[in-house]
Write a structure and sequence with these properties.
161 residues; mainly alpha; Arc Repressor Mutant, subunit A
Length: 161
C-alpha cells in the first residue's frame, strides 16, 4: 500500500498517521501549541523549506486541524490557529514528549516541564480508563474489532450475499 492511501485503511492509527504522521507536521503542531501562528515564524523556528511548510499547513487546514485567518488587512497574510479538532491532539503530543523524556533524555532530564494551571504543579501525562479512572498500560488493554464497523464495510456486504 502506498503512503498516500494509508488513510483508507480500517485502522484509526493509520487514518491519523495519514494526516499528522510525518515529522514536520508534528513539529508544526508542537509550535502551534506553543503559540506560533505565522508562516514566517514557523519557518524560522523549524528551518523547514517554504514548499514543505506550505504543503503541511495546507493539509492541516484541509483536515480542519488549523484554521487560516488573515492578520494584515493590506496584504494576504495569514495566521494558523488550532481548531477544536486540533486542540484534541494535545494529549498525543504530551504522550510523545513524556515517552521521549523517559527514554531519550540523555541523562539530563526533560527539556520542557508541563505545569497544570489549575493546581500549579508540574505533571507528567497519564492515560486513564474513561470508565473506572485507573491508569492504563498496554498490558492492561485488550483490543477487539467493533462488529458494527466491519458490518458497514463494502466487502462485508459482499460476503453476506
Amino acid at each position: 500500500m502506498k503512503w498516500d492511501n494509508i488513510g483508507e485503511q480500517p485502522c484509526s492509527i493509520a487514518r491519523t498517521s495519514s494526516i499528522i504522521g510525518d515529522r514536520w507536521t508534528m513539529l508544526i503542531l508542537r509550535n502551534s501549541f506553543m503559540g506560533i501562528r505565522r508562516f514566517d515564524d514557523f519557518q524560522a523556528n523549524l528551518g523547514v523549506t517554504r514548499h514543505v511548510l506550505s504543503e503541511r499547513l495546507k493539509r492541516l487546514v484541509d483536515h480542519g486541524i488549523l484554521v487560516k485567518t488573515p492578520y494584515v488587512d493590506r496584504q494576504e497574510r495569514f495566521e494558523y490557529r488550532l481548531t477544536e479538532k486540533g486542540l484534541e491532539l494535545y494529549p498525543v503530543l504530551l504522550s510523545m514528549a513524556n515517552w521521549a523524556d523517559k527514554w531519550m533524555d540523555q541523562g539530563i532530564g526533560a527539556p520542557m516541564l508541563y505545569q497544570h494551571k489549575s493546581c500549579g504543579k508540574v505533571f507528567k501525562p497519564v492515560l486513564i480508563c474513561s470508565e473506572c479512572g485507573e491508569p492504563i498500560s498496554a498490558k492492561q488493554v485488550m483490543v477487539q474489532p467493533n462488529p458494527r464497523y466491519f458490518d458497514a464495510m463494502p466487502y462485508a456486504q459482499d460476503k453476506k450475499a
